[in-house]
Amino acid sequence: MFKASIPLAIQIVIDDVGWWSGADDSSRNGPYRNNICRDHHPLDYAAIVELGRSLGMKPQAAFILCEWDKENILRELPSSTWQGREWDNSRWVGPWQEEALAILREGADHFEFVLHGIGHEYWTDGKGSRAEWHDQDGNMRPRDQVSRHLDYYTRLMQQHQMGPFPISFVPAAFLHAFGLGADGLVPFLRQYGIKFISTPFRSMACRREPENDLFGIDDGMLTVNRGSDLFPYNRLDPELPSFQDSSGPSVTGPVCGMHWPNILHADPEQNQAVVARWVDYLKLYDTVPDMMLAPDTASSFSQLVYSQSINLAISGQTTTFDFSCLDKLPSCTGLLDSFYCKTAAGWSPAQTSPGLQLKKRARQNCPAHTVWQIQWEKKVPVATINWQRT
After folding, report:
1. pTM of the predicted structure, to 2 decimals
2. pLDDT tens, 135-173?
3. Terminal Cα distance for the chain, rounded
4. Residue 202 to residue 205: CA distance in whole angstroms
5. How far apart are alpha carbons 263 and 237 in whole angstroms?
6. Is residue 45 a contact partner of residue 37, using CB atoms and an 8 Å limit?
């Protein structure tokens, strides 16, 4: 019997990458760092790269950059750090930065650099509060400060030639406001090339309801519901849940959210063992008929919109795709014109109606299924594919 789905594509999002100190200084007016038993090490960056390389995807690494400041430019932006105009980052400037950068550059094809923040929190007249982009009531920080924080984030990236500005954003502390349009954060992010936002909707201040439980489109920008992480933010070397145990934690939405310690070990030399367990666990999601691991963010978040909006009907060995619901959505600049369809292995397209082009996804973790990338001409409202056994 022929079966097909438009699967939910999972993207991995790793928060709070970029700290060198492992301490939580929130009780001393400092930032909420990763709160682990050691400082960070260049091998912690290798863990991110290896996770992506082994899974054949590009996980998001959401960076905090203040402890990369080798010129102390953040003295000019006192709202960005706990030391204000007395900022001195000399303690964290050293050869370990170049070691980490070499790892990141060599592994650039295996992760995505994502905007998270400079110091994670926000300091007003020397007093810190959560968080950098919005306060705990969902009020955006002063517009001039938002602009300056984005500018200084760019300058910190340029100090180390970290590449182009990111296209994705994870709000610090998950504090974000949805639905403000031109009065919100989105126009600032768009100026810097951001196309995608992800955050748990339960912590998001909504000025209007998102289009869907899993995504919303705010002034043309796709905002994705991260849902719940599997582990606390500071858990090193976690015991991963049984994939077969439905009562335990599992990834049920488009984002496998985690924090950097979750893929690390107390001994950085043993990080790879933790990563290997994550790889074995996450590959299993490719075996689920209506799920898959996404190659990158644009594919994942576009696939989310398509999986929630395309009406797929199956009659015998024919699939019919009704795209009419997509016309009801606001325009979205980051949306790709392709999506994925998953079939049982052993089937191939025999006849495809005009408006669709198919190619088999090259890398897959499940021999029982085949994933097809479908290019869609958006003027076509309904299209069909007839399948045959091969």
Report:
1. 0.96
2. 999 999 999 999 999 999 999 999 999 999 999 999 999
3. 14
4. 8
5. 6
6. no
Asked if residue 368 has a cis previous peptide bond (ω within 30° of 0), the answer is no
Q: Which two tokens stand for residue 380?
A: 């076509």
CA distance linking residue 28 with residue 355, whole number of Å: 60
Domain boundaries, the chain: 11-292, 298-389
Distance CA(38)–CA(22), nearest Å, equals 6
d(CA 329, CA 319): 23
- Size (the chain), residues: 390
For 237-256, the pLDDT digits (tens) are 999 988 766 655 689 999 99
Residue whose C-alpha is closest to residue 123's, from 214, 256, 254, 28: 28
- Torsion (CA) 260, 262, 267, 269 in degrees, nearest 10: -70
Q: Please list the alpha-helical segments (H only) found in the chain.
A: 42-55, 95-106, 143-159, 186-191, 271-283, 297-309
Buried b / exposed e over 224-243, threshold 16 CB at 10 Å, is bbbbebbbebbbbbbebbeb
What is 11-292's CATH number?
3.20.20
Can you name the residues that pair with 352 across neighbouring β-strands? 385
Helix then strand then coil, % of the chain, to nearest 5: 30, 25, 40
The rounded distance, in Å, linking the Cα atoms of 303 and 294 is: 9
Helix (H, G, I), strand (E, B) or coil at 220: coil
Q: CB of 235 within 8 A of CB of 261?
A: yes
